[in-house]
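Hi Y.,

Following your request, here is the sequence exactly as I used it, all 113 residues.
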Amino acid sequence: MTCPYCNRDFPLTWSRYAPSPFGRHTCPHCGKRSALKATLAYIAVLVIETVVVYGVALVIRAVAFLDRWRERPSLLWFLEVSALAFLVTFPIDRFYDARFRKLQRSRRDTHAH
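Below is the corresponding structure, written out as tokens. Let me know if you'd prefer a different format.
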């Protein structure tokens, strides 16, 4: 990741990623806060990840329970698949953030000038 203030690179480690669920990061060099912009491509990646996880879960459910696969899934099933989706999404999201998303100056700093 590149700081938009000092233009220095720093890695997006798990210790930086975990406490910033909305993509707000502090540069270790200059100490200024910046944020990752939510682009249409980023939102599409999140939607595709979720659809894939639910699709795989439905296929596994259909194969594992041949006699009951047409029944409506229970609320517990949806909660389990949602938890799995979150576990799958975090590493992919961190990779996408570090590799493809760019930090931008905070809105307060861009309007102050």
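Strands lie at 24-26, 33-36, 103-105.

Thanks again,
Q.
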